[in-house]
Specification:
Layout lengths: L1 E6 L6 H11 L4 E4 L2 E4 L2 E5 L8 H8 L4 H14 L3 E6 L2 H10 L7 E4 H4 L2 H12 L4 E3 L16 E8 L5 E9 L13 H9 L8 E12 L2 E11 L4 H20 L3 E12 L1
Parallel strand pairs: 1-5, 1-6, 2-5, 11-12
Antiparallel strand pairs: 2-3, 3-4, 7-9, 8-9, 10-11
Length: 269
Amino acid sequence: MKTVALIGKSGTGKSYQALNLAKGKDINYIIDDGLFIAKNKILAGKSAKRQTTMVGAVKTALYTDEDHKNEVMAAIRSQNPDCILVIGTSENMVDKIIKRLELPKKDYAIYIEQITNEKERETAGKQRHQLGKHVIPVPTVQLKHEFSGYFMDPLKIFRRISSGKHEITEKTVVRPTYSYLGDYFISERVIVDIVGHMPSSIKGLEEILKISVISGEKGIDIHVDISVTFDYNLMKLAKQLQIKTKKEVEKMTALNVLNIHVYIRNIIQ
C-alpha cells in the first residue's frame, strides 16, 4: 500500500481539490478530517467538521478516539487499497494521522501550492475565514443525517475526462458550529411559518390548524394538523403536502426532515 500526502494550510482549498487530484493520480481512497472516503462515498469515520469546538475538530481529524480510530482502521483493512491520499495542514499532522492509523510511511507529499494558483487559494481563504464555509468531498445526500441544520449546499464540479465527455463530481459545503462566534439554531417558528404558507399552493388544503416540530440529532419530525375540502383525494393531498413541506423546509433551513406526519382533522363540504 502506498500513502500520498496532500498538505496545505487551513482554508487553502485542500478538500475542494482532493477528488480531482486523487482521480488524476488514480487514487481511489482519501483520508480527510476524520473520514475514510472511497470514490465520493464515506466508508467509515466521523467528520471533524461536525464537532462543536476547534479542539474537538482537531482531535477527530487526528483519530484520538479509540473507537473512531479502530472503525477507520478496520475499513481500510477491509478495502485493502493500493494507495491512500491523506490530507493535512502540515507534514507533522499527516505523519501523526499515518502513525495513528498504522499506515505505511508516506511515499511523497503534494503541496497545495503545486496544484493551485494564488488567486484560487485566496478565494478558498475568503470562503473559509469570512463566510465560515468548509468543503467535504462527498455528495450532500451522504451527510444530511450528520449535518442537519449546518447550511449544507451541494457543489457540483464539472471536469472534462479523456474521452471528451464531462464528469460531474459533487462535494458538500457546510458551516460548522466552531466557525461562528456563538451558537447557531433555527427557531421552530421559522418552520411553522414555512409550512403555514402551504395552503396557497395546494388545491383542496383549506387551512393549517396546528404545526409541531420535534428535533433530534439527525433531523426533525414535523406534525401537521389540517383542514381539507371534501371533494379532493385526501391521500394525494396529504402526500403532496408532505413532499412540498420536506422540499421547502430543507431548502430554506438545511435541516434534515426525517418524517412529516399529516393529520386530517376537519373536512369541509
